[in-house]
Design goal:
There is one protein chain. The protein is α/β, with parallel strands linked by helices. It has one domain: Metal-dependent hydrolases (TIM Barrel, Alpha-Beta Barrel). Helix content is about 40%, strand content about 15%. The protein contains nine helices and eight strands. It has an eight-stranded parallel beta sheet. Helix 6 links the parallel strand 6 (about 150) and strand 7. It starts with a strand and ends in an 8-residue tail after the last helix. It comes from Desulfosporosinus hippei DSM 8344. This is TatD DNase family protein.
Amino acid sequence: MIWDTHAHIDDPSYAEDFQEVLLRIQSAQISRVTNVGYDLPSSERSVKLTEDYNFIYAAIGIHPHNAQDVTVDTWNRLLELAKQPKVLAWGEIGLDYYRDLSPRPIQKEVFIQQIKLANEIGLPIVIHNRDAHQDVLEIVKANPPKYGGVFHCYSGSWEMADILLKLGFYLSFAGPVTYKNARHTVEVAKRIPLDRMLVETDSPYLTPEPRRGKRNEPTYVQEIVQKLSEIRNLSFEDVAFATMQNAETIFRLKEPSF
């Protein structure tokens, strides 16, 4: 049984075949999916999905792209959502200096504020980091998450990974670990302790090989588990079991999987 710890199945690309996507998830023995918010509407949709489907959980938060749109009302509503029983994390949050859709000072301010809110409400954080390694490191060192955190879709160096592991973070692997040019990601996947590894799809983005270029979906998390099992010289079942246990630990969930 596998947990896709980071997906966006509320995305409009699933509108025409949403129920079929859900059936494929269940038939593939994907026992849990975390649907992750990136702004207030997507956070609300994520919580609604948790109410409608027993195997879906939620993370709520503001992506750096949307940082400049935040108001006081946004924070108040997110705090309400964070209290819902199947909200397991605050995210995705962080910095994105690749697209720079919000000014960097605002990205930093909103990132720090969300770490503080997660600490206040008692949730781990899910971090988005793109081309902002140094600033992200400085912020999490100065504002440590009391309940831990995950660097989603990790694609940085081993040197940075080693620092993050020493700070207590988990690293999550997605489609890029299957790509032919993913030398750094493969090195990290090989060296990271097995008990600090998670798997995700980031659906509908980052589709793994051999389906790269097509729409991603949670079922394809199997490809991530398979690739990690090859990298680690472990069985598929061993990686699936370990990453499920790791997700249960960081997200503090011990109920039976479906």
